[in-house]
Design goal:
The structure is a single chain. The protein has 359 residues and is an alpha/beta fold. Helices cover 42% and strands 12% of the residues.
Length: 359
């Protein structure tokens, strides 16, 4: 009798339980796409530029939102791991600039070649590296994308040659502009202008802050780098310009970094906390996309929150891997110095100890 009563109660309770959140979300009447107004670009030596409106599909919007959240949470986790001394050496974070890497990748082909400087974690992810391999590289583990030997500033992926620890000096940039223009190279030069150098505001360091005009004889665009859709459309325009055989183009993405220059820089000695907070509350790239998607019925607060939960879980699992995966052994210290060479001896820090290099 007791078993029969328990069975009846169980069936009744089961019938009245609410369906999982995911079921509720999928039944919502979302729009498939929406036409969204975006800020027009400032142009240099161009008769026309990207359109002032663009079509955003629901699928693309969710993909961009998730990618930006992953980059944001990955960088915040890197900040935590650095303070816990799991990450050593240099570490330059790009939180606040997520619309740049996600917008660029949304407009180019997987086979296009990309190279960047050292603030590269976000581009590493959008170019196809997993969060696990990025965080493991930061902590110097075998599972890192460069086998734990590159660290924050030297990560690589297919068709991605960087980041690099060297920032383009003015002379080198001028030479690159000149050569690209002479040979009509299909090259998009991108300046991620986050308003500060290591600790100097651009207005104090440059007589002209119109970096999109610095190519002089090369066309340029000034883009709202806090809006992923603006970045996507500008990059698409720039890529089409190059693919059409018109030569190089310069693109300035006006963005903002929330962290200091590196983890050794608190970031508030040359700017106020109020300035940072204003950017977070009024121009945050993730918030701007979220508002567009909700207002155009492409998603809902509940659905985006569910993505946030999934992203946090993915980041935590990657961090667990990055702090437990073994470090490369000393025997592997000389491996992969060259792409395809016969084995040879490599002298270590102690001249009496030699390591065998393999390709």
């Amino acid at each position: 009798m007791k078993k029969m009563l328990a069975s009846v109660v169980s069936r009744v309770l089961g019938a009245t339980q609410k369906p999982p959140l995911r079921v509720l979300l999928t039944s919502c009447n979302y729009s498939k796409d929406a036409t969204i107004d975006i800020k027009s670009c400032d142009l240099y030596r161009l008769d026309g530029g990207p359109a002032s409106s663009t079509l955003l599909t629901r699928d693309d919007g969710l993909k961009y939102y998730r990618a930006m959240q992953i980059v944001r949470r990955m960088e915040l986790k890197a900040d935590q791991l650095y303070k816990q001394k799991f990450i050593r050496g240099f570490c330059h974070l790009c939180d606040g600039q997520e619309a740049c890497c996600v917008g660029i990748e949304a407009a180019i082909k997987p086979t296009d070649n990309v190279i960047t400087s050292y603030r590269a974690h976000g581009i590493c992810y959008t170019r196809g590296l997993s969060v696990k391999s990025i965080l493991a590289e930061l902590t110097g583990r075998r599972g890192g994308c460069a086998k734990g030997k590159g660290g924050s500033m030297h990560m690589y992926a297919k068709h991605f040659f960087g980041g690099n620890g060297i920032v383009g000096a003015q002379g080198q940039i001028a030479e690159a502009y000149n050569m690209a223009a002479l040979w009509k190279l299909p090259c998009v030069f991108i300046c991620e202008n986050n308003r500060y150098a290591m600790g100097t505001a651009v207005e104090r360091a440059a007589a002209s802050t119109d970096y999109y005009k610095r190519g002089n004889f090369i066309p340029g665009l000034k883009v709202n780098g806090m809006d992923v859709l603006c970045v996507r459309e500008a990059t698409r325009f720039a890529a089409d310009h190059c693919r059409a055989g018109k030569g190089p183009i310069v693109m300035e993405l006006q963005t903002y970094r929330y962290h200091g220059h590196s983890m050794s820089d608190p970031g508030v000695s040359y700017r106020t906390r109020e300035e940072i907070q204003t950017m977070r509350t009024k121009s945050d790239p993730i918030m701007l996309l979220q508002e567009k998607m909700i207002s155009h019925k492409l998603s809902s607060v509940e659905e985006l929150k569910e993505i946030d939960v999934e992203v946090r879980k993915e980041i935590e699992e990657a961090a667990q891997f990055a702090t437990t995966d073994p470090e490369p052994s000393l025997d592997e210290l000389g491996h992969h110095l060259y792409h395809s060479n016969p084995p040879f001896d490599v002298r270590g820090a102690n001249q009496w100890i030699k390591y065998k290099s393999i390709s």
